[in-house]
Amino acid sequence: PQLMDSQARGFSKLFSIVILMKDKMFLLNIQPYLADCLTKISRELQGYARVVHEGELRAQGSSDRAQRINQGFSSYSSRSLVDLTGKESIFAYLHAHFAFV
């Protein structure tokens, strides 16, 4: 899945959620449930990032965006998940989703 990012090349960042487990049979048995959970988490993260992205575009204005596209590169470094979603407690939120496993 992708998160919208007004400062990224292509205006989006790819992300992955990886689940590692010692018990492969348990992992196989809960795979349908995990797929549903991961879909829900991905959609929520994308929604948070969309809100931040739209706010940044409004703040920048269309002329700044056109200028940035014509520049061809960005001086910004990679942005954290906290910056992309606008949620200070995003890692606690993600941890809570996976703490049950």
UniProtKB/TrEMBL annotation:
Record InterPro entries: FLCN/SMCR8_DENN, Folliculin, Folliculin/SMCR8_longin
A GO cellular component annotation in the UniProt record: cytosol
GO MF, one annotated term: GTPase activator activity
Coiled-coil segments: none
Descriptive protein name: Folliculin
GO BP terms in the entry: negative regulation of transcription by RNA polymerase II; positive regulation of TORC1 signaling
Domain of life: Eukaryota
Sequence ranges assigned to domain UDENN FLCN/SMCR8-type in this UniProt record: 1-101
Pfam families: Folliculin (PF11704)
